[in-house]
Amino acid sequence: MLHPKSRLSRRAFAVAALSALVGGGGAAPAGATTAGGPGPDRRRATGEMRGVWVATVANRDWPSRQGLPAAEQRAELIDHLDNAADANLNTIVLQVRPTADALWPSPYEPWSQVLTGKQGGDPGWDPLGTAVTEAHARGMQLHAWFNPYRIANHTDPTRLVKTHPARRNPGWVVAYGGKLYYNPGLPEVRAFVRQAMLDAVERYPVDAVHFDDYFYPYPVAGQAFDDTDAYDRYGGGFPTRAAWRRDNIDKLIREMAAGISELRPATRFGISPFGVWRNAATDPLGSDTRAGVQTYDDLYADTRKWVREGWIDYICPQLYWNIGFAAADYAKLVPWWAEVARGSRTQLYIGEALYKAGDPAQPAAWQDRAELSRHLTLAKKHVEARGHVYFASKDVATDRIGAMAQVVADHYQQPATLPR
User: Fold this and answer.
1) 78/4 Cα distance (integer angstroms)
2) Please, are residues 47 and 420 in contact by the beta-carbon 8 Å criterion?
3) Positive or negative CA dihedral for 142, 148, 152, 153?
4) pLDDT at 37 over 70
5) Which residue from 89, 25, 52 is spatially nearest to 411, judged by alpha carbons?
6) Are 104 and 96 in contact (CB under 8 A)?
7) What whole-number distance in Å separates Cα of residue 399 and Cα of residue 393?
8) Which of 47, 48, 270 is nearest to 145 (CA)?
9) Which of 163, 281, 268, 290 is nearest to 205 (CA)?
10) Starting from the edge strand earliest in sequence, which strands make up the sheet with 179-182, in order?
């Protein structure tokens, strides 16, 4: 683990080196032009989202491996918070229910395997409670990130702890695409997952509840999600199974929003969907894209409606494509989402693919460290775009080609007040 002082020195060095490169030594002067566009704006941004996802599923970001002692788990978590603070970010989006489990002492679901290596194993500390306290101590928000329906990244129920709700209620479970899921078409499932997630809201002063893009699972070629029994029981009155599935997800969103409001009126509810609602070729209201996945049709998530109806407090579409990408151009999707959010009560933030910067498997645009900075410059042309969230925390720390340092130098030299 990098010593905290070394980490701070590395961040300071990266920003200073970048400033020297673009400004001829020292900080770039106000109004100077950098590789990312206009020079840094030194004014304190008001209510701007500067967030980072901390993914725990499969130990993607944290903990670095399963079975670490509690003190090391905590130290690593603090490092993620400090790295975000070093970059003048103000929001941590921590995944606390990655696979129908918990990173807090839940009475409904087992402790997550990502902590101890054994599902149900008590880690000896409270990760979510600690994260809330430590984020607030740094003047940052903590958004609790939940995955409603994913149970396991395998299809063997016997690998789940014996007391797992999925083993106690095998009729709730659907195996699909090599994974196990709760069936969203069952009212009892929806009631249970809502109760399990709201337990964390009741226990902790989280600033927001956050869902990502997983509702019904992403389609797998040649396979069908087997919810026929549920559809036969509950699908009457709907013109198609797809319409029924969308209604199931609509109900989850509305009921979750109501539960949050009842328990903690100041806590917001945000969703980060796949970045394409529908292609214009499918629906004239859709975006000028040719994406292979459409959330409305494939994940049964009518994300546009949730914004227009004001069911959620913020939406953060994952616009994980570069400017000019033919099938889904960042420069076309930002204005489309801005138009969707215009006039609604729902705040718009943009999900950014920091993880792609410098990845040799990605297109040439992602080998340019200024690509992300150009995203922020473009988004600022749309008043509805109120900030950005970066995937993911490990990439903020490693910053493979200096893309995050470029963003900081061009856009984040001053702190921002918290999003609201």
Assistant:
1) 9
2) yes
3) negative
4) no
5) 89
6) yes
7) 10
8) 270
9) 268
10) 150-152, 179-182, 173-176
Please check whether residue 143 is in contact with residue 135, taking contact to mean a CB–CB distance below 8 angstroms. no
CB 172 within 8 Å of CB 193: no
Contacts of 105 (CB under 8 A, 6+ apart): 111, 122, 126
CB 103: neighbour CB atoms within 10 A? Answer: 26
Q: CA-to-CA distance for 259 and 262, rounded, in angstroms? A: 5
Asked if residue 331 lies in contact with residue 365, where contact means CB atoms within 8 angstroms, the answer is: no
Domains in the chain (CATH in brackets) are 46-411 (3.20.20.80)
* Sequential DSSP letters for 174-203: EEETTEEEE-TT-HHHHHHHHHHHHHHHHH
Q: What is the pTM of this model?
A: 0.91
Contact yes or no for 210/275 (Cβ under 8 A): no
pLDDT (tens digit, 9 = 90+) per residue, 353-398?
A: 999 999 999 999 999 999 999 999 999 999 999 999 999 999 999 9
Contact at 8 Å (CB) between 50 and 412? yes
- Angle of the 403-411 helix axis to the 4-23 helix axis, nearest 10: 70
Kindly give, in sequence order, each residue whose CB lies less than 8 Å from that of residue 412, ignoring residues fewer than 6 positions away. Answer: 50, 87, 88, 89
d(CA 192, CA 350): 30
